[in-house]
């Protein structure tokens, strides 16, 4: 299938971009990281085309549907969102060092996707709903925001340790200032949170239309609520109690771990315990 | 400080406990951590299943803590109540203050205020106060927002603002959570959830309620006229449909074919396509004709059940073979006529004329097996659901207001300087996204300074 070839190419491009950003960081070379940015843009074009082709191919197979309905597709869509989210941040903050911390997330996601079944399967009746489109897209944009935030939080923790010891050499010295990183941790959550909220609401609307209950405490729903509560705690700690810096960074990382659990863990870990789950 | 705290009357101390954001953060974290339990321990399973997994003592302890239905346990509900009380108190405590600030904005740029504003600029102009007031008012109107003018004789203050709505975002969001809870409670108290299987051609007027032994009277009946299943070439189900009728007072009042994701609704009760299956055993379809070929109709033979054919005898289907001696599907039939020994013979689906060889008064031909299906319907009445959706809509709006709007304020103070000119101070502040406001402030600066040039 040509879409899978394009996705494999995307994986390679993400790998190349990650490598370029990391090398640029070590070599302190702006040219290499600028090249990395171009690779990211190319990857964005290729992966967008891949999604479109996959959509088109599903129509040709007579099961036309949006390409975000199984694990493989959700992984590539997540990587696609992370890449795009990252490019926006890069443009806005005018710094390319973030790439070394964010692009590996997109690359790892694609590597993981490659090991999953990439065939286009028909949709079971419950998934044939417009709510599904809105639900998956909003959730994944939210997740992408949290991923970028966690990347920035890791950078923050590295940088803060170094600033505390008053040395500014080596790779860490090249990271943006603590203040910028701290701001980025917060701002990406400001974007991720409304999208996750919309994701949970559209999920509830869909469940209500398909099964007559908008909330049934199933593990996926519950984990999305957990993620939401963690970021709500983050926002309140930040706004009303002035949690900045280290504590905010730790909370952002905790939130992203919960996000990963919600997204993958529920299917991969908990499905060993329960009969539900699956792709 | 500490003394002051200790001397507070108890009621104030309780209030201060409930309005604290620290409590909110702790509650949010506890809620999220405890919620994990129910995703690890499978909920609402029969006790035998838990006994297989857990030791007796562990089972007893977990049962005691209601961990097998933890989202409805007293302690989880208590946490939710604590969260709601905290949210309500905190919001009630802050709203009036915010309202006052919004209703009575600081329209004058006095020195105290000026000190707190990081964005400020000052310059001097020749001319009169009145003249510059008019010019700067117009400039502010075009570059930002129409200002309010406070003329104090020797000093004139201009004040303009945009995005006041952002101050309300928090309250809309918090209120929306309470509205969602109200909707959920209404749904639980006044609604019900049930599940029912209806065989094709049959109707039901009451449904068993989930999680109990009761049934719920619908007040009308619902009939499944037909059920159909569409599959992908791989055999996976693609769509399943039920043709349903609502019957009230003996009349059909509504008819709709439902599929998954497209339910039927009547009088606030929703019917969702949920599952399907075979209702009872299959029946064999047997066409009957006279010897001369005149069709007489058809019989539906359930396994081993007698069917009487008037003026002929009793017909019974006793056996079915999918591929009898390589000749395809076949049905074994027994015919009992009064006063005669029972006759038994096979009818081949692929050879409808073969039965003529028996040279009987009636000729049978087997048309294949048909199975009656039932449709599985999820039935729900939830009078709170629209309130929940209202809450969700408000939450979305509230979060957007809080995060993406910014209350931006700009002040101008005009006063006579010692040298006879007019001294102008321009200052501004924004409730969020200060970087973006800095850029906007520069534009306002340029716009105002250009006035009267
Ligand atoms: C999960 C539930 C909650 C959500 C989704 C939520 C949402 C929000 C949002 C969107 C804001 C605005 C943030 C901003 O201006 O950047 C906010 C602020 C705030 N929230 Fe909540 N909130 C929740 C629970 C609570 C609770 C339980 C309390 C109880 C004390 C609380 C107290 C506050 C306070 C004091 C503010 C700051 C208001 C201000 O800026 O003046 N929140 N909340």
Structure, explained:
The complex is a heterodimer of chains A (279) and B (453). The longest helix of chain A is centred in the middle third of the chain and has 35 residues, at 130-164. Chain A contains 8 helices and no strands. Chain A has 279 residues and is mostly helical. Chain B has 11 helices and 18 strands. In chain B, strand 17 (408-416) and strand 18 form a beta hairpin. The model of chain B has no long low-confidence stretch (mean pLDDT 87). Chain A binds chain B through residues 63, 122, 124-126, 128-129, 131, 190, 193-194, 197-198, 201, 204-205, 208-215, 217, 219, 222-223, 225-226, 229-230, 232-233, 236-237, 240-241, 258, 266, 270, 273-274, and chain B through 21-22, 24-25, 28-29, 31-32, 35-36, 38-40, 42-43, 71, 184, 193, 232, 234, 236-240, 259-263, 270, 272-274, 378-380, 382, 385, 388-389, 392, 395-396, 399-400, 403.
Quick take:
The complex is a heterodimer of chains A (279) and B (453). By secondary structure, chain A is mainly alpha-helical.
> Under the CATH scheme, which architecture of the largest domain in chain B would be assigned?
Sandwich
CATH topology (level 3) name of the largest domain in chain B: Tick-borne Encephalitis virus Glycoprotein, domain 1
Q: Give the H and E element order of chain B.
A: HHHHHHHEHEEHEEEEEEEEEEEEEHEEH
Main sheet record of chain A: none
CATH C-level of the largest domain in chain B: Mainly Beta
The chain pair forming the largest interface, with residue counts per chain, is: A-B, 43 and 47 residues
- Estimated radius of gyration of chain A: 19 Å
Q: Provide mean pLDDT of chain B, rounded.
A: 87
Total strands of chain B: the figure is: 18
Give start-end ranges of low-pLDDT stretches of chain B: none
Helix and strand pattern of chain A = HHHHHHHH
Quick one: how many beta strands of chain A? Answer: 0
Low-pLDDT windows of residues of chain A: 272-279
Helix % of chain A is over 70%
Largest sheet of chain B: 5 strands, antiparallel
Cα end-to-end separation of chain B: 55 Å
Per DSSP, the total helix count of chain B is 11
Instruction: Give me the secondary-structure category of chain B.
Output: alpha+beta
The averaged pLDDT of chain A comes out at 84
């Amino acid at each position: 299938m040509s879409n899978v070839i394009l996705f494999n190419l995307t994986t390679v491009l993400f790998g190349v971009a990650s490598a370029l950003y990391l090398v640029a960081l070590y070599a302190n070379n702006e040219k290499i990281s600028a090249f990395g940015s171009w690779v990211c843009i190319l990857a964005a074009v290729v992966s967008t085309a891949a999604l479109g082709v996959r959509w088109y191919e599903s129509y040709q197979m007579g099961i036309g549907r949006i390409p975000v309905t199984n694990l493989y597709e959700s992984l590539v869509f997540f990587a696609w969102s992370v890449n795009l989210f990252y490019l926006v941040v890069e443009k806005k903050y005018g710094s390319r060092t973030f790439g070394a911390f964010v692009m590996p997330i997109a690359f790892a996601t694609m590597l993981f996707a490659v090991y999953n079944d990439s065939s286009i399967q028909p949709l079971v009746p419950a998934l044939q709903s417009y709510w599904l489109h809105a639900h998956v897209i909003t959730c994944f944009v939210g997740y992408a925001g949290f991923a970028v935030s966690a990347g920035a939080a890791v950078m923050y923790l590295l940088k803060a340790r170094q600033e505390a010891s008053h040395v500014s050499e080596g790779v860490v010295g090249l990271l943006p200032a603590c203040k910028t990183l701290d701001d980025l941790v917060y701002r990406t959550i400001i974007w991720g949170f409304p999208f996750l909220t919309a994701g949970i609401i559209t999920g509830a609307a869909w469940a209500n239309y398909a099964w007559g209950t908008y909330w049934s405490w199933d593990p996926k729903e519950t984990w999305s609520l957990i993620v939401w509560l963690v970021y709500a705690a983050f926002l309140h700690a930040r706004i009303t109690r002035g949690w900045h810096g280290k504590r905010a960074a730790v909370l952002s990382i905790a939130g992203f771990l919960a996000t990963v659990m919600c997204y993958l863990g529920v299917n991969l870990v908990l499905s060993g315990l329960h009969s539900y789950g699956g792709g | 400080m500490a003394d002051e705290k200790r001397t507070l009357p108890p009621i104030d101390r309780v209030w201060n406990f409930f309005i604290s954001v620290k409590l909110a953060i702790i509650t949010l974290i506890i809620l999220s951590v405890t919620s994990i339990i129910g995703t690890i321990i499978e909920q609402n399973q029969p006790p035998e299943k838990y006994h297989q997994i857990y030791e007796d003592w562990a089972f007893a302890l977990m049962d005691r803590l209601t961990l097998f239905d933890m989202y409805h346990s007293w302690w989880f509900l208590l946490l939710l109540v604590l969260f709601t009380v905290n949210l309500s108190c905190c919001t009630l405590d802050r709203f009036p203050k915010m309202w006052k600030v919004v209703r009575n904005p600081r329209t004058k740029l006095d020195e105290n205020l000026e000190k707190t504003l990081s964005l400020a600029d000052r310059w001097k102009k020749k001319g009169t106060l009145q003249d510059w007031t008019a010019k700067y008012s117009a400039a502010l109107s075009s570059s930002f927002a129409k200002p309010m003018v406070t003329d104090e004789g020797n000093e004139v203050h201009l004040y303009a603002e945009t995005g006041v709505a952002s101050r309300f975002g928090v309250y809309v969001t918090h209120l929306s959570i309470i509205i969602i809870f109200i909707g959920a409670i209404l749904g639980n108290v006044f609604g019900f959830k049930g599940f029912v299987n209806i065989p094709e051609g049959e109707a039901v007027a009451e449904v068993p309620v989930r999680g109990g032994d009761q049934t719920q009277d619908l007040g009308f009946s619902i009939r499944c006229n037909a059920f159909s299943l569409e599959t992908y070439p791989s055999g996976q189900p693609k769509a399943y449909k039920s043709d349903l009728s609502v019957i009230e007072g003996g009349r059909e009042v509504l008819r709709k074919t439902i599929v998954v994701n497209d339910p039927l609704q009547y009088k606030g009760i929703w019917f969702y396509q949920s599952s399907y299956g075979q209702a009872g055993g299959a029946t064999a379809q047997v066409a009957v004709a006279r010897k001369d070929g005149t069709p007489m109709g058809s019989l539906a033979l359930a396994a081993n059940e007698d069917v009487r054919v008037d003026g002929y005898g009793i017909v019974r289907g006793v056996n079915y073979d999918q591929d009898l001696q390589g000749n395809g599907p076949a049905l074994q039939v027994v015919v009992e006529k009064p006063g005669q020994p029972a006759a038994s013979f096979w009818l081949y689906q692929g050879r409808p004329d073969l039965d003529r060889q028996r040279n009987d008064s009636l000729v049978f031909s087997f048309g294949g097996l048909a199975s009656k299906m039932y449709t599985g319907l999820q039935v729900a009445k939830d009078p709170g659901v629209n309130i929940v959706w209202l809450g969700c809509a408000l939450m979305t709006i509230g979060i957007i207001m809080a995060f993406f709007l910014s209350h931006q304020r700009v002040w101008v103070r005009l006063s006579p300087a010692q040298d006879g000119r007019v001294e102008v101070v321009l200052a501004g502040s924004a409730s969020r996204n200060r970087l973006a406001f800095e850029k906007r402030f520069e534009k306002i600066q340029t716009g105002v300074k250009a006035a009267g040039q």
